[in-house]
Design goal:
Largest interface: A-B, 121 and 121 residues
Oligomer: homodimer
Helix content of chain A: 25-40%
Number of helices of chain A: 16
Shape of chain A: globular
Largest sheet of chain A: 8 strands, mixed
CATH architecture of the largest domain in chain A: 2-Layer Sandwich
């Protein structure tokens, strides 16, 4: 038996007990005649004491060889500490060892294993198993564990059935690229890894399972951006006989439960706004609702007055910075630099503010004081405030204004980590036009149902269709999204056609689904949550990687395993494949 | 709102309520002036009644178009049935519809959707979503759901942390073939799908997580046998600071809990026998313990008496068939045919039994009555019994005898479905010699620790080493297996060497693990359970396919999706691959 107790559980009540502990040496403090060794495991830290003239001299001798991260087993008596440590749950006691065994030695780790490590990211990725010993990562992995258990408990309680769907499926590239898996038994043929279990969960509704869920890995072969992973985890759900309203109600219930049971936080009521309202008020479909500073639309006030920049713009959009009238030239320049960053993409920034009771602006050459005042009034901006204005093509300007709003919210400290403001955004457009491909793409996915009353326009004006689709947004982050699906074959056919698929292509890729829709498919809808993202939001971090035990780097590489890697010629031959020149 | 209640919940207490139900039409019974329509969902069946002169004539007219599996929504009043059906939970009531909407029509399904279907297997696989509507599959999927929830609940309670390990890993073919995934971002390089998360769970022990679990998909590209799936689900677990004994105790605890909480069955105490004892007593390492009929070893009695068949055999092994003295010539011939089947592989079968008080045998030309009697006595066979004897090369003979024992157990009705007899088999050999490859293979896997006291023989006599490995067997089926792992680099190096890996190969494939063993790896061990198999045993079925929502067929093909399939030339090009001629 390696231990009678773990390193976090002994208390003063255990005084006098003979115990066996096993763990890692956190540190050795040597005060000459007394030596303390801190033993660590994931449950805590327990101190052992070696005292000249009291402890077995052989043990004292042995302890000279101890190094950081050695694994040892200690048999001894629990005794009361002379000077207690109230910061430690085991701080009242220490162990007086009678026997010590070194279970394994350790080389000196390449970085410190503490709350904050001195190791760089690449090094910590290579030795991920050592980084995972650090307390912040242990907390993250534990949070994830709890969230996994609570999610399933809650969905089980809601009457959802957990059903595993296959990983080796069929390649039907729509949108993102599939990872494919060559088949050896069927030469020249490939499976694909799922980007999501979408079609399977719909089939399960057609099978009558009524409510399905799964916490499942999904795969997307994308050109990687920071903090995207080629494999990621989804909470995937589907329900039968539901409207959009039913789905939203069910899943805000889930997320409220999770925040309550895992974090002890009561989420406030969800706001619900349509996509078009969200774009109008915030310039984005995932607004951070922890603060106001909604966009001010100035086209009517600012266009047609001879200022060419505004006159040539589709949109002229303002954001009011409360208390901004005191901003210096330098501070305003910094904001201008911010909006000009390629990630934000604006051409420049116009300001209007009071200075000693006088209205000042970077465009006062082009506009009268009355005109400027009418903007300030329209924007509800007072003497202490500053109105910041962006102009240009509609989408870019709204995006830049939304980024500026977030930046200003950060500066004013309005985006508090411990505050959570959840939101539903609904009624997304069905399609968006892809200028490059010269065709319409599905904004959600091709199985999303259009609003019934819009369906008639699908051939003549697909861009105008709204979908029964919804996103859950918390603090400006999209945590989940879903839709009510198409449950009739004729509608599905029309949507595939609008997306530019020929009848043949549609049948080749999704024939099984279209056929299934003819055998009594019930109305159904669902949602998928990004589980890694949900962990990171609840854990208060920006990075999903901190919540994944073994993540890949930004080049989709596992630097610990050194993967991907070459495979043998024999393996390639068996798969009937050749690497190109 | 599509429904106020599901189809399984209305009772006589609901009489008079206005309700809305949605579901599938199970059947329509037309008695002229009265028509009953059974509405079905996964919760049950509710009858609705349409009565000439009472119901809205438009609804009666509409119902003429109803077909099997139509999806309809019914609004109406709950009324008491005239003739109640005590077999149905909703059998006291029926609905008098005021409004009916057809939500979706259905073509006539290609097979009947009932307890027993009239559809052949291939057809039911193609329309799996319809097969999944049948009650037996619904029960199986529900059992699996419960088992998933209970397994996690139990392991969480035991202090295990659920940690997800990656799916895109590194190809390190040892034993079975890997499925590989070409990388687009790193041309000519491949990921592999995990055959198990073995190395990751060991790293997690090195990271100090102490107890890990995961219910996870694994992948093996094997030449398929009946009832094997290329992707399968494992309950994967690992623990630190444990001996073989600790692991066995923990996981028999898990399985007992699962049987209790899911089936309401108390498992009896686990027997524990060593591999060599198991082979000796039963001829197999996964004996069915629901009955006796242990093997009788007759070499000392039967060899060296001039009967060449026995004299040339390594083993002469008997099984006693109780009450077998009454077996006719024809029945004995049938048993001989059984052992001669290629799946059993014996050359023939010798019998000895009493006939009218006289000993009769197929070999009485070669042996005296006294000799035959001494065999019967040694086998504890009485006047009513028959001794059946197999002889030949050791492994083949033990295997055939074990198969014969199972067959006889079946014939005597000793293998009862509702009885469960769990067992641990432990102390497996470390290596087995592969005659074809002229080298030793790991019986469990290369990370299994050999018995400490045997390690000295690893270079001179690897075949003699025993491992700290164990299998859990229930009713003759291996449901799980595991081992205490190697936690020291030097031992791991020796094992790789014994397996014929050069130092370079070992480093290329498992360098990360060997390095990790140098940074304070604790003693650790674990187990993995075949989850599909566990479901099928608990559900009382032979086939794991019945417990997988979307299984592949014996050729690893998904006939519903038609996968694997060709991918586009464009996809191949992006992956830098070519299909060979």
């Amino acid at each position: 038996m390696y231990r009678t107790h773990n390193c976090g559980e002994l208390r003063i009540a255990d005084k006098g007990k003979k115990v066996v502990l096993s763990g890692w040496i956190q540190r050795v403090r040597d005060k000459g005649s007394i030596k303390w060794v801190d033993l660590r495991d994931r449950f805590g830290l327990t101190q052992m004491i070696l005292e000249e003239g009291v402890s077995d001299p052989a043990l004292i001798e042995m302890s000279k060889g101890f190094g950081r991260e050695f694994v040892i087993q200690v048999e001894g008596e629990v005794s009361e500490r002379f000077s207690k440590n109230p910061e430690l749950s085991t701080g009242d006691i220490e162990i007086r060892p009678e026997k010590i065994e070194v279970l394994n030695e350790s080389k000196t780790p390449p970085f410190t294993i503490e709350e904050e490590s001195d190791g760089g990211e690449e090094l910590r990725m290579k030795y991920r198993y050592l980084d995972l010993r650090r307390p912040p990562l242990q907390r993250n992995i534990t949070l994830r564990h709890k969230l996994l258990q609570e999610t399933r408990k809650c969905l089980d309680g809601f009457g959802f059935t957990e059903i595993e769907t296959p990983f080796l499926i069929k390649s039907t590239p729509e949108g993102a690229r599939d990872y494919v898996v060559p088949s050896r038994l069927h030469p020249s043929e490939f499976y694909a890894l799922p980007q999501s279990p979408q079609t399977f969960k719909q089939l399960l509704m057609i099978s009558g399972y009524d409510r399905y869920f799964q916490i499942v890995k999904c795969f997307r072969d994308e050109d990687l951006r920071a903090d995207r992973q080629p494999e990621f985890t989804q909470i995937d759900c589907e329900m039968s006989f539901v409207s959009m309203e039913d789905v939203m109600e069910t899943f805000e219930g889930l997320i409220k439960e999770l925040f309550k049971n895992v974090l002890g936080t009561e989420l406030p009521e969800y706001e619900r706004i349509s996509y078009s309202e969200s774009m109008h008020r915030f310039g984005t479909d995932r607004p951070d609702m922890r603060f106001g500073m909604e966009l001010v639309h100035l086209e009517e006030h600012a266009k047609g007055k001879g200022f060419k920049v505004f006159d040539d713009s589709e949109r002229v959009v303002g954001v009011v910075l409360e208390g901004g009238s005191s901003y210096s030239r330098k501070q305003i320049d910094a904001l201008t630099d911010f909006v000009r960053r390629p990630q934000v993409g604006a051409g420049g920034l116009v300001y209007v503010k009071y200075n000693d009771g006088e209205l000042k602006s970077s465009v006062d050459k082009f506009f009268s004081k009355e005109e400027l005042r009418s903007w300030m009034d329209h924007a509800n901006a007072g003497k202490e405030d500053m109105l910041l204005i962006l102009a240009g093509e509609a989408n870019r300007t709204l995006f830049a204004a939304s980024e500026l709003r977030l930046e200003l919210g950060d500066r004013l400290g309005l985006r508090k980590k411990e505050e959570f403001k959840p939101l539903w955004v609904y009624d997304f457009p069905m399609f968006e036009y892809d200028e490059e491909g010269k065709r319409f793409n599905a904004i959600h996915h091709p199985f999303t149902s259009p609003k019934k009353e819009h369906l008639a326009l699908i051939e003549t004006d697909p861009g105008s269709l709204l979908a029964n689709a919804y996103d859950m947004v918390i603090n400006g982050v999209e945590v989940g999204g879903g839709s009510v699906r198409i449950h009739k074959r004729d509608v599905q056919e029309k949507v595939f056609k609008a997306l530019g698929l020929t009848e043949e292509e549609a049948n080749e890729k999704f024939g099984f689904l279209m056929e299934a829709l003819e055998y009594g498919a019930p109305p159904h809808g669902g949602i998928a949550f990004g589980f890694d993202r949900l962990c990171s939001i609840m854990g208060g971090s920006e990075s999903i990687r901190d919540y994944i035990a073994f993540p890949k780097n930004n080049a989709a590489r596992d630097v610990m395993l050194n993967s991907p890697s070459m495979i043998s010629e024999e393996q390639l031959k068996e798969l009937n494949l050749k690497v190109r020149g």
